[in-house]
Write a structure and sequence with these properties.
Layout (H helix, E strand, L loop, with lengths): L3 H11 L11 E7 L4 E5 L12 H11 L5 E8 L9 H10 L4 E5 L5 E5 H4 L12
Parallel strand pairs: 3-4
Antiparallel strand pairs: 1-2, 1-3, 4-5
Bound molecules: tetrahydrodeoxyuridine.
The site of tetrahydrodeoxyuridine has 13 residues, from helix 2.
């Protein structure tokens, strides 16, 4: 699978991030089964609760447009190292598709790909709940 376009979209949206506190921009883009791409950037706040990660914004953007069938996500941070999804974002991603590809990118040519479930083994699932 060629994720060049997906990574490019994450890199583009990264520059829209609102990061007055951590001063660390993140861009994320999700690919749906039907081939559409939805993007998100981190949106910080002076209090922690409303602070949104880029992955959260991208997934929310897809879902509000009627797409829950996410097959891949690309994450691009503007630091020196690969930007791995935080713990909360890993939980968010596995709920939509444990088999989704998580593309952690430094550039369009320097990236690593994991399955979402690989990044969060033994995750809590809606299937654990009683009917
Ligand atoms: N951040 C993300 O957007 N995604 C992650 O998975 C890790 C962290 C953001 C949140 C905050 O604005 C900044 O990076 C530092 O934590």
């Amino acid at each position: 699978m060629d994720y060049t376009n997906l990574i490019e979209k994450a890199m583009e949206v990264n520059s829209n991030a609102y990061t007055p506190y951590y001063k660390f921009r993140v861009g994320a883009s999700v690919l749906t089964k039907s081939g559409e791409i939805f993007t998100g950037c981190n949106v910080e706040n002076i209090t922690p609760a409303p602070c949104c990660c880029a992955e959260q914004v991208a997934v929310t953007n897809a879902v509000k447009s009627g797409h829950k069938d996410i097959v891949a996500v690309a994450v691009y941070g503007d630091g020196l190292d690969y930007c791995y999804p935080c713990g909360s974002c890993r939980q968010l991603l596995v709920e939509f598709n444990p088999q989704m590809d998580v593309v952690v990118a430094k550039s369009t040519t320097d990236y690593k790909i994991y399955k979402a479930s690989e990044l969060l083994p033994y995750f809590f699932s809606p299937k654990s709940l009683k009917e």
